[in-house]
Structures are given as C-alpha cells and as structure tokens.
Design goal:
heterodimer; A: alpha/beta; Rossmann fold; eight-stranded mixed beta sheet; 14% strand; B: 386 residues; alpha/beta; seven-stranded mixed beta sheet; six-stranded mixed beta sheet; globular; binds thiamine diphosphate; binds iron/sulfur cluster
C-alpha cells in the first residue's frame, strides 16, 4: 500500500477547527480512511472535541459520541454491547483519545474495557501534553519538556504505556506516527480484522505544544522515529515486530540519530540548550532512550 | 399474574429482567449488591437475553449505559451511596444527552465513617442532574415503578433518565409479597424503545460537540419542559398499569387522612410509610394529622404541596441534610408556598445514617409542633431519638 493507493473517501470533512499543521487531523484522516464508513467514534475531552467544530456543524462524517474525559473505554463497551444486541458485528467501535485521556484520567476505564475483552479499537493520539487546556504536563510528557505546569522542564520520565497495555495480553497492540501514513493505515486495517480489544498509539507532534513551526509537523514525527525516541512496533499474540526504521534500529542495522537532533528543533526543550547547554539533563534523556532499546532487546531479542 | 414473596432488591432485579433491557452495566455496593448478583444469576441460567457488562466502577457503569443507550439500547443499572456519588458527572451527561436510562438507587448514608444504613443524602445530592427521581415505600411499588420508569423515560415527551430509590435494608433486604404479571403482559405494556437519536453509520451524527452560548440555554429549557411533562405522565402511565394489573403507585404525592387534617407530615420512602402508623395513633388521640408521602423529588410536586397547604400546616421530616442550611425537602416545600400560602412549615431532620425513626418518634415530632410550635429546624436524632 502506497500513499496514492489510500481510498479517496474522506470522513474528516473540511472546516475543522484544528490549528494549522495539526497532527491529530493528519492522523484522523488516515485512520478514518482505514476504518471506512461503518464506524462509530468515541471521543473524550481533548483537542478533537474542538476539531469537530461546533454544534450544529461537524467535521466528521461518521457517527461520533463525545464522552467525559475519563469515560471512553466504558462508553465503548456499552456501544459494543448495544450493537451486539442488534446483531450488528460489522461496525467498528473506535475510541480516539489523547494521551491525557489515556495515560492519566482514562486509564481505568480503558483497562477495564481491555480486561472485559470489549471488541473495539482504542487509538491514543499522543501529543505528549494536555493541549486542549493549553499545554499542561501529562503522564506521557517527556523528561525535561517545558509545559505550563512544568515550567522549568518536567522532572519525571513518561510511563511506558505500551508495556502497560501489553500486560493486558490483548490480541493487538501497535505504535505508529502520523509521519508514516501507510504504516498507520495498515495497522488500523489489521486491527479492524481482529476480534477483541486492540490498542494503537500514534505519535502526534503538536506545533503549539512542542513549540515548532507549523510546517514541520511531519518532520518532527520522522525525527522522533529516526532518533529512536518513538519506536514503531506491532505486538500480536504476544509476538513483537518492529516496523520500518525501528526494525532496523532494533536489529542494529540503523544507527539512531542523536536525540539532540529532535530536542533542538522544539522550543519546549530550548532551556536544555540556552543560555547554556544542560549536559546532565540531555544525557539523562539520551540514557532513557538507550535503556528503552536495551529493554526491548532483552525482552524481544 | 402470580404473587412472588421476595426482598426489595430481588424484586428490583425481577422488574429489570421483565423490562428486557438490552444492556445492563453495574458494579456492586452494599446494600445494592443482591440486585447485581440476581441479574448475574439470571444471565447464568439463560433467563436474561441482554448483555450484562461487569464494569470496573460505577463511573464506568453509567458511562457504559450512556454508550449503549446512545447506540439505541434499553439500559438498566443499579447503585447506592458512594457508587452514585462516583457517577455524578455521568448522571449529568446522561440527562443532557437525553438518554432514557433507568437506575435503581438503594439509599444509603455517606462516609466517613463507613456506614451502610439508609438515609437519602446520596440521591438528594443528585437533585440538579436532570434525572427524574422516584421514591418507593414497598416492594410492590419498587416493582411497578421500575417497569413504569422505562415507559416514562422512553416517552417521546420525556427522554430523560429515571432513578428509582428506596431505603437500604429497610426495603432492599426485606421480603414482601408482590403481584407480578406475565412476561407477555409486560411486553404489551412496555413496547420496544424508539430512540430519539442514535449512533448509526447510515445517518452519522456528532453528539455532544462544542455548543455556543446562544444554543445552550435551549437544551436546558427542553429538559425542564420534559420534567414538566413527566409530572403529567407519571400518573397517566400508572393508571394504565392499574387498568391492566390492578396495583397503583402513580401520584406524585401519596396522601393518607389529609382531608380534614390540621397538620400534614411530609416525607419520603420508608419514613413516609412508617408515618402511616403514627397517623393512626395520633388520630386515636384526637389529633387531626395527615400524611403526604412524596414519591418524586424531581419533578417536584409543587402544585400538590400548595393544595396540601390550603387548610393545614406542614411538618417536613428530612432523612438528609444540606449542610450549611437545612433539610432539602424543607427548603423545597417552603419555596413552593412563597407568596401563595400562609401555612406554617416545620422542619425536622431524622433518621440520618440509618438511625431508627419509629412511629412513636413521629408521634413525638408532631406533639412538639402542636405543643411548642417548634420553629426552625430540629435535629430530632440528637434531641428526641434513641
Ligand atoms: C474530569 C475532567 N477534568 C478536566 C477536564 C479538562 N480537560 C479537558 S481536555 C483536557 C486535556 C486533554 O488532554 P489529552 O487527553 O492529552 O488530549 P489533547 O488535549 O492533548 O488533545 C483537560 C485537562 C475535563 N474535561 N474533565
Ligand atoms: S493544539 Fe496541537 S493537537 Fe491540538 S488542535 Fe492544535 S495542533 Fe492539533
């Protein structure tokens, strides 16, 4: 599947209220092409609630239920049950939630839905912040990053949500990045065909939140993968497969670019370089990424 | 029609089963637990065809009901006290989304300290969520009210969720005989739900996106109108039930010996029923006292209260307290009468945290009013109760 072969159907309509260069809309467009018309979306409080545009208009051409910030997993279980009662097993029920709604406030409802075996796809678009409320830290915010609640840079490292979800032993867990639309498309297509809970986490570099120019969204996602900060993988039936460059990194065939290449382009890390280089924090950041790959090799090598 | 002798909770589960919800999502909490256990038993025996979602919290129970209801399902849940409080955000969500979910709340006091006994602070605190609230005082009333609640909630002029409340242990764990119609008869009374809106890929809607101030007030007003419609429909639906099955619980206020009364006691649920015995005792003593057991908190039966106050003073007994002010029913009753009646209203707080309120206690409350013309709010639990 190459880009030009993606279906022409559009389920994300023009006139959304997203910022220019918004990664969530890039991701949504691809994801909805993969899902197709027979889809019901569940969206908790997050930027997408704004992207939908306001009542009585909508930028979505599939049915969409907005739900409270922490409630997506449970609402999806309810929809799936209702459809089952109607004898409809041909409709994809899909949560589209931010990292706040996934890593933090919504983790319980999501975990519950996984444990119950709800037949749905949970997609977390991870922009590593609460952007709807104006850029606050989340459990996914990287170490050292500025947000309005980590003014001097975050002191903690993000959770390993992939490991948390894998520990639920659901049939399909994958990561993706909006900069690789074919990969994202294929993963959603695959998830669609699998019964039971599926989890896909998509890295979505957010220009206002990460402080980079709005024409560099795709580049920022690519660099995250090339530096190894963001791994692309699929975990199916407890088998791990790394994809694309991440596979080459995992197999030692591609030398990761220095993490700095990614950090330097984002205003949210500028205090690590100006007025004076903060060697210690940059090293800690690098070590975190090294350790992650080391863990992957130990566990899946 | 058969007669079943069972506890309030088992009767509630039976009513829920006969209403044939497509989806039940619930989480256990004392004293509601035997409802969810009974439903699980129905599922295991193949007597319940709906989907039973064992969620991981009450917040998720209500969220799952919202999802299911939005996809067109008839949905049921049950909870109590801390479970109801945990749902609070989603109670608003369900009502604003105009989803006709039916829920039982087994009234229980709130901790700390941990208490499992009855009072009504849990449901009274949900006053402004938009839910219709019905309070029961017998197992027959629980049965009838739950099935009627589906018809009411799903009525095209209502489309609001309904909470059916009754006292923990006093009713939830007490057996009484209940007349139970056949499944076929219930099916005739309660046809399939026809949703006002539904999540459907053939007709995609975006539900609940951002709404501007110019549009928002009208959705609130529509909810208010729906509550007003419910005032008329609650008795209408109950009358239809009576014609079919003989039992009747449909008045917003159930009155007992009020016609010539100088004083009328107002209260909810089991306390209301208990007061009947007190009324008979007081009447024997020559005191002209009547009883008005309120069945609804929302919609609030303001017109009925006004008519009660035409010839009598009112004695309100609240089994809950709005800390910093007074009993919630006391407040509501006075606001109904404002500028329309000069009846006096007396307020008592009694039975908090399951404190026993016997008919003799109710007699003492009335005596205080008659003898001392008690003013303000009296904490009967502290002063007179055991
Ligand atoms: C219970 C509750 N707490 C707080 C909020 C405020 N709130 C709305 S969206 C949001 C952050 C969302 O962050 P995330 O899930 O990462 O999505 P993003 O905005 O980044 O797209 C917050 C804190 C809320 N809506 N509900
Ligand atoms: S803040 Fe970021 S994620 Fe949110 S709409 Fe703007 S670009 Fe998109």
């Amino acid at each position: 599947m190459s880009l030009k072969d993606l279906p022409k159907d559009e389920y994300l309509l023009p006139g959304s209220a997203a910022c220019p260069g918004c990664p969530a809309t890039i991701g949504l467009r691809t994801v909805l092409k993969a899902l197709g018309k027979k889809t019901i979306l569940v969206v908790p409080a997050c930027c997408t609630a704004v992207i939908e545009s306001w009542y009585p208009n909508s930028s979505f051409n599939v049915p969409l239920l907005n739900i409270a910030f922490e409630a997506s997993g449970a609402a999806a279980s309810g929809i799936v049950s209702a459809l089952k009662q109607k004898g409809r097993d041909d409709i994809n029920v899909v949560v589209w939630a931010g990292d706040g709604g996934t890593y933090d406030i919504g983790i319980q409802a999501m975990s519950g839905a996984f444990e119950r075996g709800t037949d749905f796809i949970y997609i977390c678009y991870n922009n590593q912040i609460y952007s709807n409320t104006g850029i606050q830290r989340s459990g996914a915010t990287p170490y050292g990053a500025w947000t309005t609640t980590t003014v001097g840079g975050k002191g903690e490292f993000p959770k390993d949500m992939g490991a948390i979800v894998r520990a639920h032993r659901i049939p399909y867990v994958a990561t993706a990045c909006i900069s690789y639309p074919e990969d994202l498309y294929n993963k959603v297509r695959k998830a669609k065909e699998i019964r039971g809970p599926k989890y896909i986490e998509v890295l979505t570099p957010c220009p206002p939140g990460w402080r980079f120019p709005m024409d560099r969204t795709v580049e920022m996602g690519r660099l995250a993968v090339e530096t190894g900060v963001w791994p692309l993988y699929e975990y199916e039936n407890e088998e791990m497969t790394f994809n694309g460059i991440s596979r080459a990194i995992f197999e030692g065939k591609y030398k990761r670019k220095p993490v700095e290449d990614w950090l330097k382009l984002q205003g949210r890390f500028s205090h690590l370089f100006k007025p004076k280089r903060d060697e210690e924090r940059i090293k800690r950041f690098e070590k975190f990424v090294d350790d992650m790959w080391e863990r992957f090799r130990k566990e899946f090598g | 029609m058969k007669v079943v002798v069972d506890t309030g909770n088992h009767i509630a589960a039976l009513a829920a089963k006969l209403a044939k919800p497509d989806v039940v999502a619930a989480y256990p909490i004392t004293p509601q637990t035997t409802i969810v256990e009974k439903i699980a038993e129905y599922v295991a025996k193949g007597e319940f065809s709906g989907d039973y979602i064992c969620v991981e919290s009450e917040h998720s129970a209500m969220s799952a009901c919202i999802g299911a209801s939005a996809a067109g399902a008839r949905t049921f849940t049950a909870t109590s006290a801390h479970g109801l409080l945990l749902m609070h955000e989603m109670l608003h969500w369900a009502a604003l989304a105009r989803l006709p979910i039916v829920m039982v709340n087994v009234n229980r006091a709130i901790g700390p300290g941990w208490t499992i006994w009855s009072d009504q602070n849990d449901s009274m605190a949900q006053r402004d969520t938009g839910w219709i609230q019905i309070y029961c005082s017998s197992n027959q009333e629980i049965f009838d009210s739950i099935i009627q609640a589906f018809k009411l909630a799903e009525h095209k002029d209502v489309q609001l969720p309904v909470m059916v409340c009754y006292d923990g242990f006093i009713l939830s764990h007490t057996s009484m005989p209940v007349k139970v119609p056949e499944q076929k008869e219930i099916d005739d009374f309660l046809p399939k739900r026809e949703p006002a809106w539904v999540l459907d890929p053939e007709n995609p809607v975006t539900h609940g996106n951002i709404i501007m101030p110019k549009d928002y007030p009208s959705i609130r007003k529509a909810m208010q109108d729906a509550q007003e419609n419910a005032k008329k429909l609650i008795p209408e639906i109950a009358k239809e039930w009576k014609e079919r099955f003989g039992t009747y619980h449909g008045d917003l206020i159930e009155k007992y010996r009020c016609e010539d009364a100088d004083y009328i006691i107002l209260s909810y649920a089991a306390l209301g029923a208990e007061s009947k015995v007190a009324i008979d005792m007081l009447r024997k003593e020559g005191k002209k006292v009547g009883l008005a057991r309120l069945r609804t908190f929302r919609p609030f039966p303001s017109e009925d209260i006004l008519s009660l106050a035409e010839n009598a003073d009112l004695i309100v007994i609240d089994r809950s307290i709005s800390i910093g002010f007074e009993g919630p029913l006391f407040t509501e009753v006075k606001s109904c009468l404002y500028e329309k009646s000069d009846a006096r209203v007396y307020g008592f707080i009694a039975g908090l945290g399951g404190k026993d309120v016997r008919y003799t206690d109710i007699g003492k409350i009335v005596d205080r009013v008659i003898e001392r013309k008690q003013d303000g709010v009296l904490w009967y639990d502290m002063e007179g109760g055991k």
